Amino acid sequence: MQRVRSIFLSDVHLGTPACQAGALLEFLKAYDSEFLFLVGDIVDFWAIRRRGVYWSTDQNTVVQKILKRARHEVSVVFVPGNHDEAVREHIGTSFGNIRVERDYLHVAADGRRYLLIHGDEFDQVTKYHRWLAILGDHAYDLVVRVNRWLSWARRTLKVPGYWSLSGYAKLKVKKAVSFIFDFEDSVLRHAKERGVDGVICGHIHSAVIRDAGGILYINCGDWVDSCTAIVEHESGSMELVRWGGAEEKVVRLPLAAPVATLDESRQALAGALDRSVVLKHQGGGGRGAG
């Protein structure tokens, strides 16, 4: 097990069939930490209200593992998102040694100050057009279900690598790309107003680490499609880990060389609109839902 200083997770969506709890369990077995931050949408109360509770053994084990870490001197902070917004009624309290906060200021080992937020308050659709957000959530659920069947078919046919339908759709739909950058811009403006060195968020299921004018923008991604997390090392450096599952190696994306600027990121992503998007992991094989 690798020891790191902090682990940041978001958009796990426990309570749904799409949650890849099995992959998350393998990740938690591989990483231990002093701090564990749950950056929103950990439990999907929206889906539970619509379709009832789906609670697998793996999902139950994920909860038990988090509670166990909280009991054994791991500092666990939960910043609720829009899918688990009911927990916001309990901001400022603790349950099972897990602190609930509206947002949180984390000081990394290197002294950098990071603002932790889920990010839904900067999503104009979620904030002002809730009915449209729910409709979009239904559509995303459908894409994820289709993706699960495609993953099963690829495994059955022994097709190497992992192909993400939702990831492909995000890059092919120009409005989705524009939405991602509008969201990031809003989050970065807020971080600048708060006077922090960086911001760590979730919500849009798009994992990334990049420098934007001296402010580090970090998105944890999700455990529905991409299976990504952020870890802070003892040096204070941040790293995006894309977890490939028990039978695959971890693909690490460290913050090493200078990170692309916002304009460079826009150009690179715009160019990707005309190419097929295939997410390949080392070791071969696909992932199934947990």
Question: Would you mind describing this structure in some detail?
Answer:
By secondary structure, the protein is an alpha/beta fold. The protein has a single domain (2-272), classed as 4-Layer Sandwich (Purple Acid Phosphatase, chain A, domain 2), CATH 3.60.21. The chain is 36% helix and 21% strand. The chain contains 8 helices and 13 strands. The protein has helices at 21-30, 45-51, 57-71, 124-128, 130-156, 165-172, 174-194, 262-272, and strands spanning 2-9, 31-38, 75-78, 94-95, 98-100, 104-107, 113-116, 198-201, 208-212, 215-219, 228-232, 238-242, 251-254. An 8-stranded mixed beta sheet has the order 4-5-3-2-1-11-12-13. Strands 6-7-8-10-9 form a 5-stranded mixed beta sheet, with helices on one face. α1 runs parallel beside α3.
List the helices and strands and how they pair.
Elements (H helix, E strand, L loop, with lengths): L1 E8 L11 H10 E8 L6 H7 L5 H15 L3 E4 L15 E2 L2 E3 L3 E4 L5 E4 L7 H5 L1 H27 L8 H8 L1 H21 L3 E4 L6 E5 L2 E5 L8 E5 L5 E5 L8 E4 L7 H11 L18
Parallel strand pairs: 1-2, 2-3, 3-5, 7-8, 8-10
Antiparallel strand pairs: 1-11, 4-5, 6-7, 9-10, 11-12, 12-13
Helix pairs in contact: 1-3
